[in-house]
């Protein structure tokens, strides 16, 4: 049996962007009949929203585009997560900095910013501040599609 590829989506509070990315990534993987190959989760770099469900703006946007919301309560990323996951995907530069701090560095090169997979160095804007869940969804969707392609190509290169 092939070992699952484990991906952790990370943002500041784990109620907007990372939960959206977890749901989008899970949906895309299910559409491609690849769920047997992946384990997807999400976490926060902060403790502010621990235990809270996904933000209503994220839930509404995902419902609007027909993507099931993964049942979730906000959790904080831990150093153990760095050891467990193959890819730790941050939504913005501040997330990357905080993820690297939590993990005590990125010695295994597992921490990435989501939009780097699309060829962009941009951050995924935080809809908590912008109120623009449409723009966030477009970035998350593009990033997740590019990430899946990257992972599948990377896995093929290793075999």
Give the end-to-end Cα distance, rounded to a whole number of Å: 14 Å
Biggest sheet architecture: 4 strands, parallel
Helix proportion range:
40-55%
CATH superfamily: Response regulator
Total number of helices = 6
- What is the residue-mean pLDDT, rounded to a whole number? 95
The SSE order reads EHEHHEHEHH
CATH fold-level name: Rossmann fold
Index terms:
globular, 159 residues, 6 helices, four-stranded parallel β-sheet, Rossmann fold, alpha/beta
Itemize the secondary structure elements and their pairings.
Blueprint: E1 5-11, H1 17-31, E2 38-44, H2 56-64, H3 79-84, E3 87-90, H4 93-102, E4 111-113, H5 127-130, H6 133-158
Parallel strand pairs: 1-2, 1-3, 3-4
How would you characterize this protein structure?
The protein is an alpha/beta fold and 159 residues long. The protein has one domain: 3-Layer(aba) Sandwich (Rossmann fold), CATH 3.40.50.2300. The protein has six helices and four strands. The chain has a four-stranded parallel sheet, with helices on both faces. The longest helix has 26 residues. The radius of gyration is 14 Å and the shape is globular. The mean pLDDT is 95.
Short précis:
The protein is an alpha/beta fold and 159 residues long.
